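Researcher: First entry.
Model:
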Amino acid sequence: MNKGWIYREQITLKEAKRTILDYYSQRYRHSSRTQWQQRITAQQVLLDGYPTTVDTILQPGQWLTYYRPPWEEPKVPLSFEVVYEDSEILVVAKPSGLPVLPGGNFLENTLLGQLKKYYPHETPIPIHRLGRGTSGLILLGRSPISRSHLTKQMRQGKINKIYRALVGKSNLPDRFFIDQPIGKIPYPILDYIYAATPNGLASHSDCIVLKRTAKTTLLKVTILTGRPHQIRIHLASVGYPLMGDPLYRVGGIPKSYQEKENEKLPVPGDCGYHLHAYRLSFNHPFTHQPIEVVCPPPVQLQ
């Protein structure tokens, strides 16, 4: 059981003129309208620091605070390996199944939560993200200055990230590029989800076939942009979703219907796909010396 969490958010002009119940039930659809009503009535939700009611109309600038009581988090692999470390940066190899940041039902059972136990007097912050089901290398800054330098490198495309990915049997060329735009689209159980969409942000992936078998194609993928779930979406957009991907279908769009009665729709954090952050290179934020680290892939991606 964790210690619970406090969520605070300020109401914008766009979000105003709705009741508190409408706000939570429409914005956070992981819980039902009845569940949100019960929480507000139980005074787990405060408005500007005071108890409120379900039919209170929200005004711009007001603050909502939701006190989430302690809960039992899902079991995940908690071990990780520090691949590189100095006073300013960390490079960590995380296992598939371990979320990077708190979200949903995960708080302490995350990479960030575990790092706080090993580094109690600082807060290493990820410079980029990996999906929960993705294994491999992630770069973290240990100070505000190092994070600023590394984030600038990320924006300028100077941090090189190479992945191993597994798709089904294919007739893909030995080398190909994908430039499908990626953006937000509505999703039934979430406010939105990232997917292939013509009005999305520019996204670029460079793909090389490493090995072909009777049932699979092993790829080396270098991402030149860092859109959420980029590799999953891009490969699905050209007709080859990652093997085992429970979410993205051919075309780079999510599964948005139930194939069986009472079937739970997948979400981005669901695992099962084969993707590994294999190689990471960047310049040290202070010495400016190049650093390259490699994390051997799991057997299925070798």
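Researcher: Second entry.
Model:
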Amino acid sequence: MLSRTADHLYWMSRYMERAENITRFLEVANRMALSAGRDRASHWRPVLTIAGGEALFAECYGERSAVSVIEFSVLDPSNPSSIYSSLRSARENAHAVRSVIPAELWESLNSTWLEVKGLDGPRLRDQGLSSFCEWVRERSHVFRGTTYGIMLRDEPYQFLRLGTFLERADNSARLLGVRAAGVRAGNSEVDADDQLHWSAVLKSVGAFKAFRTIHGDNLTPMTAVDLLVMRDDLPRSLHACLDQVSIILGNLNPGAECARLAGAAHAQLHFGRLDHLLARGLSRFVGEFVTANNALGARIHEDFLME
């Protein structure tokens, strides 16, 4: 398969996953802001921090508020990580490989983009943020379901899935980092704000019921982090994402350097212990994970996507 075809498939799935994850960041911020007192604007800052858009936001909008952060994160075409930009880029990449992907996949992405293309501030307010976020996630689920349900398990399928899980690992780690300060092995302190935040995080990734099944009512930062980092049976955990990335790269080329990097990162979680991983704190762990994940992405580009 041509490198440029692999590149389009890989980035198509990354952008679709990114759009979905932005909705998850927005919902955490919205839930926290609704439960806050006067300083509600501070709860919207992590949305900008996670997506790396603080400088651009300050230049374009100045003062931070719920309305401005939502507009920047959802509708702003100048923000490369907005939902608008992500879905536009996913559609453009899909258009470039229409002969490779199933017709149903193209039609789903194209119709999703056409709906978002016509969205503006008044229409978003009428629909409501929660309803819009739910709609984006449904469209992302259709994308993944179509991919998984009808595609031949060949190289195009592998690159589509690779982009999904690498992007998901990055975004899950960044979500963990929002309230990472003070979370470390051996620290059992927990307050009402901690419980509210981690409850919102678990609900945003659809893992609250899974948490209750495993940990019951024992919601602490450490039990939430354990679920979202170490559990290989939770689809959005870091462990589960690296499981898939390692398998896919092994299928594509087990001798590639990126396959070695993925295997090493996966082994750290598969054979590691949470108390050892968090010995220097969750903030340090998240920072190192994101850096390693970015390095893995760069090596994948060098090994497979460069002509």
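Model: Note on the second entry: The first helix runs from residue 3 to 34.
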